[in-house]
Structure formats: C-alpha cells, structure tokens
Design brief:
13 strands; 294 residues; elongated; 3-stranded mixed beta sheet; Helix Hairpins; HSP40/DNAj peptide-binding domain
C-alpha cells in the first residue's frame, strides 16, 4: 500500500519553499480546525493529517529523509547501514527500494531484518548469532499526553519481556535504550520515538502553541477565558480591546524538558469568534456603534 503523500495533503509541490508550506498549512488548518467543524469526523481526520504533514515538511532533516525514503523515513539510517539504495520516482507515489546483495545475516533484505529481528527469530543459527550481536531499533508511537507525562511500554529482549519507562519530554526522533544486561547474548534495543500530531496543540521543541476562541464582546470589553493545557485548563484574563491574533505566553505550561525538571512555555493565540443569529436589537446596537465610530 502506498504511503502518505505529505506534499499532496498540503496541496504543494515537492519543490515548495518553507514559506509556501507554512502558508498552505495555516490555510488548511483554519479550514479544517475542529472548532470550526464541530462534530465533523472527516474534518477532524483531515486536520490530523494536515498537522502530520506540516510537522514532517517543516523540519529540514525529516523532509530530506522523507524525500529520499518516503513513508519509511524513520528507518533511513538502517537502510543506509545495510547498503540499501532507493530508486523510483517518489513524486509519482513510488516507494521501492533496491536492496541487492546485503550479505549473510541480513535475512535477504532490510525489511526482514527490521521486522523479524524484533521477534528474535532464531530458526537459522548463523543468522541468529549475527542478529544477537546487533542493536535493534523498534518504532514506538506516543500521544502528546503520553510524551508530556511519561509512560511505559512492554518490549521483548532476548526472550524476556521488559517494562520500559519512557520519560516525560520525549519528542520525534528520541531514542530510548533498553540494555541487554551483563552476560546476555542479545544486543540492545533502541525505542525510536514518534509523537502523534495533536488536534489542538502544535509542538515546537518544548513549547506548545494553541488557538483559543474568544467571543467578540470579551475581546472588546475584557473578561476571562479558559486555555487548555496537557494537564487541564487554566484561566486567562483577557484585557479590554484585545486584538484578534494576540498571543499570550503562559510560562512553564509547555512540554517538560527531557532529562530535567524544567518545562517549555504555552503560547495561546486569540481567535475572535464573531456573533451569529443576531436579534433586531443587537443589529440596531451594531448600527449605532458603526455610526458612532464614523
């Protein structure tokens, strides 16, 4: 099955600039945002796909790997290490790889080494001995909430089932080492972390960005609104005459820094929600306001 075409999802060509990708993402994200399409599951799925595509193509290193290896970009280092040479036109949706003669112990191809190694197949003794000497990589996908709080996964290592703790703050590309231990023949496992796009939060390093819908009257007269965070909601004071697009910084409300107790920030962007279904009295008041404002 062909992998996702992130360029097609954003509606840009493969030579698109960073600015073009960003503009396309913003336009589609506004159109498909869950707040704009309440209860529309197809719009929600489209919004997730748009975020996933933007996260891939806005990162130069990820984009380079994606352009070369397609939807198997996370295994780029393993492809290269095994001597795999990509061929085919990714612009036409192809994701074919030429493996050639990779030598004894590679199970005839890189995919076999990727997926059969993870089950610790020992049916062929010579190849089994080679596999036990190598460090293995196993992809693990987390939600943003799991990356925020930390979680655990069960992995198999040399015939043993181990509970592995994943610390708070991991991001795409983080590697968690599961050591074989002294006296064990098997190699180590590295959990290759990827974090799924969130329907509300956009992550940039340890910082989070979120849009907050606020009524027109609240932004004009001032008031208070709720801002979502990964651990709950916070009250945010809205000053009078707050402009649409105004960004408020909530210090220390972002993602944990991996390896220490610090946290990034949360940036809340105000999105003014215009009133609808106005009564005659409300229309008259807006007309009066228009005349007063000249």
């Amino acid at each position: 099955m062909a992998g996702k075409d992130f360029y097609q999802i954003l509606g840009v060509n493969r030579g698109a600039s960073d600015k073009e990708i960003k503009q396309a993402y913003r336009k589609l994200a506004r159109k498909c945002h869950p707040d704009v399409n309440p209860g529309d599951k197809s719009a929600e799925a489209r919004f997730k796909a748009i975020n996933e595509a933007h996260e891939m193509l806005s990162d130069p290193e990820k984009r380079r790997k994606y352009d070369q290896f397609g939807d198997k970009w996370q295994f780029a280092e393993q492809f290269a290490g095994a001597g795999a040479q990509p061929y085919g036109d990714f612009r036409q949706g192809g994701t074919v790889f030429e493996f050639g003669d990779l030598g004894e112990g590679n199970l005839g191809g890189i995919f076999e080494s990727l997926f059969r190694d993870h089950t610790f197949d020992r049916t062929t003794h010579t190849r089994g001995r080679d596999r036990k000497k190598r460090a293995l990589e196993q992809p693990v996908e987390l939600s943003l909430e799991e990356a925020y709080s930390g979680t655990q996964r069960t992995v198999e290592l040399d015939g043993r089932r181990l509970e592995v703790k994943i610390p708070p703050g991991v991001n795409d590309g983080s590697r968690i080492r599961v050591a074989a231990g002294d006296g064990q023949e098997g190699g180590d496992i590295y959990l290759m972390i990827s974090v799924k796009p969130h329907q509300r939060f956009e992550r940039k390093g340890s910082d989070l960005h979120v849009e907050v819908p606020v009524s027109l009257t609240e932004t004009i007269l001032g008031g208070e609104t709720e801002v979502p965070t990964p651990k709950g909601k916070l009250a945010l004071k809205i000053p009078p005459e707050t402009q649409n697009g105004k960004v408020f910084r909530l210090a220390g409300q972002g993602m944990p820094h991996l390896g220490n107790s610090g946290k990034g920030d949360l940036f809340a962007k105000i999105r003014v929600v215009l009133p609808t279904n106005l009564t005659e009295r409300e229309r008259d008041l807006f007309k009066e306001l228009r005349s007063l404002r000249g």
